[in-house]
Amino acid sequence: MDLQSKSFPKLFDFSTSPFVGACGVVNVNINVPTLGQMSISSRITGTSFYVNFQTPYSGKLLTNYGNNVYNPDVSHFPNLTALNTLISSIPDVSIISTNLTVPPGFTCNIQFASMDLPLINGFGIIKGTNVGWGYTLTGSYALTPIIPNQILSVNIKNLLVGPKKPYTLQLNGNTPQYSYPFNVIEVGIIINKNVQPLPPIQLSFKAGFNVTFTLFNPFVQHIVTVVDQLSSSSNISCTIKSNSTNWLYCETTRPIQTGVYNISVQNVYNSQSTMMTFTETYPLGTAFSYDSSDPQTIYIYGDFGANGQQNASVQLNQTNCNITSINQTSIICKLDVLPPKGLASVHISIDSYNFTRLNAILFTSGGGGGINSSDSQGSEESNPLKDCIVNTSNCFGHGQCDENGVCQCDTGFNPLDNCLTEFKNSTPIIDPTKPTTSFDIDGVDFKFEIVSVQELDLDESIVKELPSDIWQSTINSTLELTVAQYKLNTTNSTIVGPETEVTATISFSSLSRTVDFGLRQIVIDPNAIKLAVNISGWDFESNLSYLRVVFRTEINNDQSFAYDCEDYNVDSLSFDSLNTSLQYLRVIKGDAQFNGRFIDYSLANGRPTYSRVQLISLTPSSNDDDTSVATIGVLLSQCQECLLDPDFTPLLINKDESKSCDKKVNWRLIVGVVVGGTAAIALATATGLQIRRKRIERRFNAKMKSKLANMNKQ
Length: 714
Fold this sequence. Notes:
Organism: Cavenderia fasciculata (Slime mold)
Protein name: EGF-like domain-containing protein
Number of domains: 7
CATH class of the largest domain: Mainly Beta
Domain EGF-like: 407-419
InterPro entries: ComC_SSD, EGF, EGF-like_comC, Ig_E-set, IPT_dom
Pfam family, one: ComC_SSD
Largest sheet: 12 strands, antiparallel
């Protein structure tokens, strides 16, 4: 009988009864997944039945009066009811209902593939022959058939982790003689991912990892491997140094870099993994300086590890700096020769870990082979006093040039621009919503505002940026001083952690002030605004990243003033002598000039260090064609407390109106008529000067773009 190719989608009960005179053999091939019960009966003694289910069958097979039932695959034959039958053997099935009696002296031949029983969270597998149909001893263990008589699932309750130990299992509740001792051991691994693990530890030439568990047996041999998820590097072995039932600590066999790693814990039976972020915390340089009387001796402060600072080295622009002193927080090294004038990058290597900070130190004077080793060779001997008088019109009439060529200004005039401008009595506009430096003089306004705080990587790419949009303020005023304190609201920020704090302080006084900033004293002009920005508790992505505070203001594309009938072009942005860092911001509006001064150093964890000021971008203003929006960035070291301190001063351009430019022009014309050729030369010279000034103005935008490009290359 072959029903394999037939389709009976609703068939539940199938019966067959061989008729009298049959050959004594009944073959049934059936493929009916929905079959619930199959009955086979025969009144003929000696008939053999061969039943073969082609698909798994969960129903019952009922036999009556037959003497044999055969099925080659017991997984297809799970249930058998044998009542009033003459069969002599019963196949391996999970449920038996029979009235057969056990022959006297019968012994079941039970065999096990292994007496070792590893458990994963209390569950294991027993394999063998004649192992039964399962049994449950309440509160102790449960045996459940997977394949009856061949494979049983074991669940042992309340088994504590520890070394391998004997555990007796009874296979059947009615036959206690079939009880066997197994060697049981818990081999499960469950990593506790609900608890924040201890961060990985940076060690000398290696790293340490802590892993916590809810299930772990330290009596089982485990191996731990570490794999970098970004670089897909080969497995790094992590040697287990200590462990217990809920944690382990291991150390890698070689150093690793900052990154996200997959930590895999495994034994021969089981494995689990978790992700961890490793961050190099050292070497980290936060402040760099040198003694002006001894520029060969370099001082570096930061974190250089608590592991003995092995194999330490320092380089400045790829030149070795010989270490004379080193500990966890400072390094002192000495160059063999005087460093050249200009910027120097610093590279530090300790315990096989590396740190680099580009443009970390500015040498203002240089030794042999420097950038400007001799500026006066081949030139005529200069006269500082004469040059000062010619170039500044003798301090623009508001002071006197001294023999060193320096303007000594009259009281109330600004020495920074050779006495051109006069300090202006004004009151700043204090904005309670944000720390904006703002003046309004006779309807002419000036603003300088904080845009954001950025974290940059070694390539100066932005790692993350915190907008400075919501501030809380407290403003206090006395007769001489107004102080506004601001705190950036970062409560709901997903960019920085809860420990990050950004504060700003704006102070204003109508009097001149001297304030301490690091080891220096800074003179603040009268009516100037001092802006201090403090950043603390920043969670850096790596020891190579650092901060940049971004400001924004509006500047003029072309600006000039007239003095003694001459036009003087004024650059809105003035850089240092090496064209590396922005020093002054000057904006002329009407008769008012607003000066911003940027100090080329900041405080990193209380120590002064070089701080470069960048022109990040210069874009046309949307308000008019005569102005541009300048975005300025102040670079800070990686520090737990960073402080910068620019100041801004309103000034009045005091024009000299005692001379008549018309008379001067007429005189030139008269001389031109009388002298002839000589006058032509003079007139050409005057015209050339005017053309040159116009060209200077036209070249302003190109020059700004060039400076911006050069700044970005530094």
